[in-house]
Design goal:
The complex is a heterodimer of chains A (about 110) and B (about 120). Chain A has about 110 residues and is an all-beta fold. Chain A has a single domain, classed as Immunoglobulins (Immunoglobulin-like, Sandwich). In chain A, the strands form two sheets. In chain A, strands 2, 4, 5, 6, 9, 10 and 11 form a seven-stranded mixed beta sheet that branches. Chain A has a four-stranded antiparallel beta sheet with strand order 1-3-8-7, with no helix packed on it. The radius of gyration of chain A is 13 Å and the shape is globular. With about 120 residues, chain B is mainly beta. Chain B contains no helices and twelve strands. In chain B, the strands form three sheets. In chain B, strands 2, 5, 6, 10, 11 and 12 form a six-stranded mixed beta sheet that branches. In chain B, a hairpin with a 4-residue loop joins strand 8 and strand 9. Chain B is globular. Classes of the chains: A mainly beta (about 110), B mainly beta (about 120).
Chain lengths: ~110, ~120
């Protein structure tokens, strides 16, 4: 039984570019949440998707957007990248927006 | 709004000695509280969860945490540290919004275990 998988594992972009990160939830899960973890800090909630809709959003600008597909997988898009967007981006899945989250290993994004 | 404060950014113990990682929370209602562990290059793993059924919660790998409402604390303990316990630990509070829920993480405590 595969857990939460994220791709790519590492990514290097330059300022102003756009990036798309991908996440496949744990088998049987229908809810995907995204978190940003800056170096030396705890993860911060970006948003949560359930039934292909954004259900809750943290304090992140509109440059951060997402999508959930019918197979429950999800994408995180970031436009107009800033140096401060450099971080580990974590995807987590759960069942029916539950509190028990399973996390992927993350995508390390570096913006130069 | 809710928040979590982890009182120590780094904790160093010797192998075989007790571990105490401190956490205080702020929440306007009865919270769900968690401890997660993050090993290098690995995802976050749930250690334990408190949801008001019992104030002392037992988790995996010998860890446990005690919920103290009067002190708004949820400290994580382990009687005897093992080298494999060296990792980053996060205290987390859950906010169930009108639709969905979000986790609020503390800043983390790095546990170092000396041989």
């Amino acid at each position: 039984d595969a857990g939460v998988t994220q791709s790519p594992t590492h990514l290097i972009k330059t300022r102003g570019q756009q990036v798309t990160l991908r996440c496949s939830p744990k088998s049987g899960h229908d809810t995907v949440s995204w978190y940003q973890q800056a170096l030396g800090q705890g993860p911060q909630f970006i948003f949560q998707y359930y039934e292909e809709e954004e259900r809750q959003r943290g304090n992140f600008p509109d440059r951060f957007s997402g999508h959930q597909f019918p197979n429950y997988s999800s994408e995180l898009n970031v436009n107009a990248l800033l140096l401060g967007d450099s971080a580990l981006y974590l995807c987590a899945s759960s069942l029916y927006m539950g509190e028990k989250l399973f996390f992927g290993s993350g995508t390390q994004l570096s913006v130069l | 709004a809710q928040s979590v404060t982890q009182l120590d950014s780094h904790v160093s113990v010797s192998e075989g000695t007790p571990v105490l990682l401190r956490c205080n929370y702020s929440s306007s209602y009865s919270p769900s509280l968690f401890w997660y562990v993050q090993h290098p290059n690995k995802g976050l793993q749930l250690l334990l969860k408190y949801t008001s059924a019992a104030t002392l919660v037992k988790g995996i790998n010998g860890f446990e945490a005690e919920f103290k409402k009067s002190e708004t604390s949820f400290h994580l303990t382990k009687p005897s540290a093992h080298m494999s316990d060296a990792a980053e630990y996060f205290c987390v509070v859950s906010d169930r919004g009108n639709a969905g829920n979000m986790l609020t993480f503390g800043g983390g405590t790095r546990l170092m275990v000396k041989p």
